[in-house]
C-alpha cells in the first residue's frame, strides 16, 4: 500500500519560466520573497513555483538563503517582503492550516528515544487528530514502506542512523501531507543507507507526493529532483532540471589532467596556456587542470600531440557539481 494518497490535479497558474502548454497547480508560489534579520538580508527577492507532484530542490553554499526560504515555506518564519502562498494559503494568516497539511523531515532527527519505533508513529498521529485506529493503520503502512516492520517494538536508541532517518520520514508522512519538506535527508548516512533512502523518496514521488529537498549532495539532487534552483547570496543564480543546468552551465564532458606532485600551481598556469584552445573553459586547481569540452578523448589526444605528459588523465561526464562550483565558486563559506 502506498504511504500517501494524492491526486494529480492539473489546474492553477501556468509556469513563469519557459513556454508551458498546460496549466499546473502551484503548491508553493513565490514572488520577490525576502527575509531580513536586522540589517542582514538573507533572502533578497526570489521568484519560484513548486508544482504538484514534482520533486523540487534547493542547492547552495552555507549562507545562501536556503534554510531561511525553507522556514518561510514551512510557515514557521514570517516573510519580510514579497508574496508567498503555500497550498493557496497565506502563511501570515493561515499558518496553522498550512502546517497541518505539511510533512517535515528536519536535518536532525527529533525522534522520541524513550518510545518504540511504532509508538513514535502512533503518538505523532494523535497530534494531527487521527483516531487511535487510524494511527495504528497508518503506522503499519508506513513501517512496511520504510522497511522497519521488524523493528516496530524496538526503542529508537537501538536503531542505526539510516533506520532513524527512515523512521523520521515515515513520521513526516503520518498525516498524509500535501507537501513534504526534507532538509538534508541523507546527511551523515553511509552509501548503502543513502541509496535505500533515495529509493523510498523516489517511490513517494512516483506516488504523486510533492517533495521539496535541500541537500549538499549533488548526486542526490541529480537522482531525486525534477527541477531545482541554485541559490547564492540570497538570490537564485540558476533554475532548471539537472540536465538543463548541466547543458547551460557546463559542457558534455570534463577532462582532468594531473601532472604530479612536483608540478606547482605556477606551472599549472603555464600548462593551461598551452591547452586553453582545446576546451571551452579551463579551470586551474592546485593539483590538476580541468578542461571543459564536449569531446574529452579528443582533448586528451591533442594534449599528448603537444608533447605534454600528464601523470594521470580522467575523462568524465559533467555533473551538477561542476555547475554548482561554477555558479557559487570554490571558496569555503562558513
From TrEMBL:
GO BP of this protein: response to antibiotic
Membrane topology, as annotated: Peripheral membrane protein
Sequence ranges of Basic and acidic residues compositional bias: 1-11
Keyword tags: Antibiotic resistance, ATP-binding, Cell membrane, Membrane, Nucleotide-binding, Translocase, Transport
Short name of one Pfam family: ABC_tran
Region (Disordered): 1-25
Organism domain of life: Bacteria
InterPro entries attached to this UniProt entry: AAA+_ATPase, ABC_transporter-like_ATP-bd, ABC_transporter-like_CS, P-loop_NTPase
GO annotations of cellular component type: plasma membrane
UniProt keyword annotation of Translocase present: yes
Keyword field contains Transport: yes
Ranges where the ABC transporter domain occurs: 28-258
GO MF assignments: ATP binding; ATP hydrolysis activity
Gene3D superfamilies linked: P-loop containing nucleotide triphosphate hydrolases
SMART domains: AAA
Localization terms from the record: Cell membrane
Name this protein carries in UniProt: Lipooligosaccharide transport system ATP-binding protein
